[in-house]
Amino acid sequence: MYENLVVSADWLADHLDDVRVVDVRDAWEFDGIGHVPGAVSIPFDSFRSDVGDEGMLPGTAVWTDLMNEAGIDEDDTIVAYDDTHGVFAARFLVTAELYGHRDLHLLNGDFSAWSREHEVEREAREFPESEYAVRDPEHSPLVGYEYVLDAVDRVADADAAGDGAGDDVVIVDTREPEEYAESHVPGAVQLDWLELVDDDSRGLKPRAELESILADRGITPDKEVVLYCNTARRISHTYVVLRQLGYEHVAFYEGSLTEWQERGGPVEREA
Predict the structure, then answer these.
(1) H helices within 87-206, ranges in order?
(2) The whole model's pTM is what?
(3) Which CATH homologous superfamily contains domain 142-262?
(4) Which sequence ranges form a coiled-coil region, renumbered to this chain (predicted)?
(5) Which CATH number is 6-117 given?
């Protein structure tokens, strides 16, 4: 998944005949505003689990049905996009990775990056139904409550040592500063996922700037990075960015703060 993970609109234009493009915007946007030629519509709400379990995986049966209806095979090259800086498309890609899909890419700069320079299509194309086979992922970044609880202890031990000893893990809260101040996992550093996005292009900031922002928070490639938000949407984007930058040890706490608080996990607050 990680080679050339984030691709430009020009790259997509050059490879359009060789990839399957997935549009995760609402269906009315796909039809009314237009879409990348040859794209299939798989709206964000269709690959999330039911109410009461927001943000979690949809289940093998649901995922298989979605892929079959879209005519996507498990070995297809997929490029996903949305109109929200890539955060919803990133969640699609992480979901696909967890169901064993391996050739995955995010369109940098979302749909606007395409529509500014390339033609759009308004009629949906028909693709023959596929027989998608879910596989075990080559690597699963998913971690659970107990894993994060242990990471909290590791951060606390490193802080108590005072000399950086054992400081090999960083917990990252990808929500807005106000949310972080209200309640966060103890020892977590705050990094709003939008800090990694360029306002003008709607895509990622230049690599050097990304690395500087991350280093300022102590989020460096030599550490294990444990990501959380509220319902696993925002961490999906940060996860994709970190993997694009070559971070190898990235943990994805899908339950995030929703599960953490439901299970009585400790929290910190800021005045």
Answers:
(1) 87-98, 110-117, 145-161, 177-182
(2) 0.94
(3) Rhodanese-like domain (3.40.250.10)
(4) none
(5) 3.40.250.10
